[in-house]
């Protein structure tokens, strides 16, 4: 019996997804936007009805504070997002898309929908739910184990 390496398969799938988005999306027409920038723009645009903070990106994308800070700083330099103060806490800065990023978000939404449809082609709704549950459980297993290896 051949041993399956789930982590390796997930890493490989991630690479294929990134390549798919690089080659089959509007991204190639949008100068200076990385794949990560696109995911962040999409997330902020999708949550336009509430304030989004750096901490939200850290949690959603499972990235460290320093990584999130670097990405946000670069996106500010590129004119994609702005940091705005909030009235209830002077230390907090909500992340707001610029008009440039809002325009890009329309393309990102289309590309995301195409990618999801392609990725899950041939899957039933139940299979997608089951797979999502497995992935969430794997993420939780790793979060619970963090620092013990």
Largest sheet: 2 strands, antiparallel
**Proportion of residues in β-strands:** 5-15%
- Topology, number of strands: 2
With strands numbered from the N-terminus, the spatial order across the biggest sheet is 1-2
What level of helicity do the residues show? 55-70%
Tally the helices.
6
User: What does the overall shape look like?
Assistant: globular
Order of helices and strands: HHHHEEHH
Radius of gyration: 17 Å
What is the terminal separation in angstroms?
A: 28 Å
Mean pLDDT: 87
* Alpha-beta content class: mainly alpha
| Low-pLDDT residue intervals, each spanning 5 or more residues | none
Topology record:
Blueprint: H1 6-23, H2 35-46, H3 54-61, H4 65-77, E1 81-86, E2 89-97, H5 99-119, H6 125-145
Antiparallel strand pairs: 1-2
Description:
The chain is mostly helical and 149 residues long. Helix content is 62%, strand content 10%. The protein contains 6 helices and 2 strands.
């Amino acid at each position: 019996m051949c041993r399956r390496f789930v982590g390796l398969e997930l890493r490989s799938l991630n690479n294929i997804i990134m390549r798919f988005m690089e080659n089959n999306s509007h991204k190639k027409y949008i100068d200076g936007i990385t794949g990560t920038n696109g995911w962040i723009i999409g997330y902020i645009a999708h949550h336009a009805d509430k304030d989004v903070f750096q901490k939200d990106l850290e949690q959603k994308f499972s990235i460290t504070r320093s990584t999130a800070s670097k990405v946000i700083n670069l996106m500010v330099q590129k004119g994609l997002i702005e940091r705005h103060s909030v009235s209830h806490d002077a230390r907090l800065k909500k992340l707001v898309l610029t008009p440039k990023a809002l325009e890009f978000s329309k393309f990102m939404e289309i590309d995301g929908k195409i990618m999801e449809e392609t990725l899950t082609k041939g899957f039933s709704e139940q299979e997608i739910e089951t797979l999502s549950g497995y992935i969430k459980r794997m993420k939780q297993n790793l979060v619970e184990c963090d620092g013990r290896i």
